[in-house]
Design a protein that fits this description.
Length: 165
C-alpha cells in the first residue's frame, strides 16, 4: 500500500466545520455526469459533484482559501461518524492503494469523510482513473466511485477556478 507522503494529506476538513451558516454552492453547469460548482466557503473554490441513487454524494475540488485539493465522500456506509474526528481510510485508484487520514462530518444527516492534499494536481490524477474505491478503517468497502466523465468535468472546474481568481 502506498502512503500519501508526497501529497501531505491534511486531516482537517473545513466542510466538517461548516454549519447552518454555510453558504450555498453555486451551480456552474453539468458536464459529463458531474455538476460543476463554486463553494463560497472554500474561497470560491470550484468543484465537481455527483449524486448517486442511494443519495451518496462525491465531491472533488479546490479549496482556494487553503490552496489545496480535496475529495469528499458522503455515504451512509460510513456508519457513525463524528464531526471533526480523524479516521484512517484507504482509497484505491484502479488498483493503486493509498492510506490517508480523513476528518469526519455530517451534512444533512449523511455521514461523510474528506481528505485534503497540498498537491492540487492530484485531483487530476484521480480523474484519469476509472474507479476510486474508498474503504473504512476496518478495510470494509464503503463505496466504489465511477470516475467516468470526471476528467472532462475537472477541466471545466479548472477553468472555473482560473476565472474565480
Amino acid at each position: 500500500m502506498k502512503t500519501l507522503v508526497s501529497l501531505y494529506v491534511v486531516a482537517i476538513l473545513a466542510l466538517g466545520s461548516v454549519s447552518a451558516s454555510a453558504q450555498a454552492l453555486i451551480d456552474k453547469g453539468f458536464v459529463s455526469g458531474w455538476n460543476v460548482m463554486v463553494d463560497p466557503s472554500f474561497g470560491n473554490g470550484c468543484l465537481i459533484q455527483t449524486v448517486y441513487q442511494d443519495l451518496s454524494i462525491v465531491r472533488i475540488g479546490y479549496d482556494a482559501a487553503g490552496n489545496r485539493g480535496y475529495f469528499v465522500v458522503f455515504h451512509d456506509g460510513w456508519g457513525k461518524i463524528e464531526k471533526d474526528k480523524k479516521y484512517d481510510i484507504t482509497f484505491d485508484l484502479d488498483g493503486q492503494k493509498y492510506d490517508a487520514v480523513a476528518t469526519g462530518f455530517v451534512q444533512d444527516h449523511v455521514p461523510g469523510v474528506g481528505v485534503f492534499f497540498e498537491d492540487r494536481e492530484f485531483i487530476h490524477a484521480i480523474a484519469r482513473k476509472k474507479v476510486m474505491t474508498v474503504y473504512n478503517a476496518a478495510g470494509e468497502r464503503v463505496i466504489a466511485i465511477d470516475l467516468k466523465g470526471s476528467a472532462k468535468a475537472l477541466d471545466y472546474a479548472r477553468k472555473c477556478q482560473a476565472a474565480e481568481g
